[in-house]
Amino acid sequence: MGIPGLTTHLKPYAVPTVLGCKTADCELHKSQHGSPSHDIIIDGPSFAYAIYHRLISHTTEWLTAVDAMPNYDELGKGALAFLDELESYGLNVENIYFDGYLPTHKRETRINRLKKSLQKLASYHTVSRKEVQSKRTRDRQSLPPAAVFQSGPTLSAFRGVPPAPFAVPAVLDALSSSKYAKFTSVVPGEAEVYCALAARKNGGIILSNDSDLYVHDLGTGAFVYLDSVEMPPGKDRQQGANSEGCKLIELGLNCPRDIAKRLGFSNLRELAYQFTRGYSQTLPEAIKAAKKHQRDDQISFSGFAQDYVTDTFISESKHFSPEALARLSIQSQFIDPRLSELVHQLESKDCHIAEAYLLGLIEDPCRSSAWLVSSGQRTFAYSICALPRKRKPGSENLRIEECNRRGQDFIMQEISLLTEPEIIAYANSSQNRIQTITETFSEIPSNLVWGIYALFEVYRWYLNADRTPPARELLKSALTGVTHPHLTWETTHLSAQIQAVLYSLRLIHQILVYIALATAEPLPTSLRELATTLEKLPSLAQLIPSPFELASQTANLDIGSVLHRLAMMLQNEADHDGLSVIDTSGELLNAPMEHSPRKKCKKSNKKKKKGAKVVPKGKPDNMFEMLM
């Protein structure tokens, strides 16, 4: 996860090296093609965020930090374009690794990261206040994939918001449906460890922005900071008489073994440890301290060094049986990393409490977590995931805890897992609602129908939680991506809630597919039917479009008709509870009302302002305009 200060001190020791040539039939360089030194190993999460930052550096200044985010389609295409360009120089993409299981002792580190991300979002929220100061239009210019060939400075206005929450799964999605799928793996550990092992075994060059790679044993291998990779189009460089006009790629190689030797060490662990001790020091000071043989914190150093043992077999055999590893290696290859973590925990030998970590959404940090609206879906998903483990003797007390935001902090909250009959019932009700939505909106493109379904679920959550549902303009903005006149935090939060529902649907589908493959016992009919329905979910790039994409896709959509039909469906559900959610014209009201009128409230002794309404306790006193 990176060692503060290490990059600053050791990056100058990188050796500039010409690794590839794009010129056809270049005698000087074509002999290098196919050599082990040209095998590229990629740290997947680091790669995804590098692509994200390269794209956002090309966005225009008039956008807000939220709207400037590359959409998931641009991220996927940018990632593939980057790899294609690397290969055009004669480099071979050998492995792309994604984290699939993180050590439990890094729990504090990851929660601290979540807190820092939340603080960043909260600071931006404070600065931007009520309005995020830009009007969305239907003609936002797309970012070209070639934008990823060069890194660039990110505008200061865009640095205040955390990256797009689904950047990593979006890039993984794109890779899994491309020619690079056979090189891509979600591994039962940290990606950097598998990158290091591949480099140590076979040589090659790791692309990553993780300074931890200085500490790993890469053997004769090396790593390159992704941020330093430049592939400018159309620029030639002369490299001697025999290669005039060659298009070369030159990278700064960081070889930990060579750097350690230059500094008088056998490896860089002792030196790296000095930079984790919480105080500032120069490189000569750190070298001097690292060379002292006597130390009063040997236990602390041993714990630090243990994280950099580049032997995945030891780590895997400690946690998983050979049978579990065999299942995981085949059946969990392209499930999202956060879900992979949960699956791996439930497959581990000594798991009694499995932990699920949610991605940080771009939401209003002053309101309840946007993930709350899909908590029922995730409880259903976790319950299915835990089924095989709970059927085993001795696993009756298995628990799953979810890390979620509560206010300005993060807590681990135990999930009340469903029984098998409850799972069946939930599957049936979900299947019925999805089927009703898809039939009702059959003339609308399928990716938009999933968004309508998500909005339906969000509205249902507000009704069930006895909270005031979103206003008419907010619902329209959520469906069309267009805001009038400005993007507000209310719109941003509703969009995050919709994304929470859509991503939870994706988790349910991936879990159903995994469980069907991982267990010999066939799934119940209701789960099989739901899995078949969820097979129609599009890729993440289509499932969660940007507001600008939505604006373009819904330009000719009759939003009034969509909201009217949605209102009638909500009323059908509300009838069971004796509530009205629509008015006499069939449009959604501001807040649910009881069918039968309440008795008048008793007069209060408190003074009221002239014209103030008397409202039954627990019911909001303001009414939304009817949805048109």
UniProtKB/TrEMBL annotation:
<dbReference type="InterPro" id="IPR026832">
    <property type="entry name" value="Asteroid"/>
</dbReference>
<comment type="similarity">
    <text>Belongs to the asteroid family.</text>
</comment>
<protein>
    <recommendedName>
        <fullName>Asteroid domain-containing protein</fullName>
    </recommendedName>
</protein>
<feature type="compositionally biased region" description="Basic residues">
    <location>
        <begin position="597"/>
        <end position="612"/>
    </location>
</feature>
<dbReference type="Pfam" id="PF12813">
    <property type="entry name" value="XPG_I_2"/>
</dbReference>
<dbReference type="InterPro" id="IPR039436">
    <property type="entry name" value="Asteroid_dom"/>
</dbReference>
<feature type="region of interest" description="Disordered">
    <location>
        <begin position="591"/>
        <end position="628"/>
    </location>
</feature>
<feature type="domain" description="Asteroid">
    <location>
        <begin position="164"/>
        <end position="417"/>
    </location>
</feature>
<dbReference type="InterPro" id="IPR029060">
    <property type="entry name" value="PIN-like_dom_sf"/>
</dbReference>
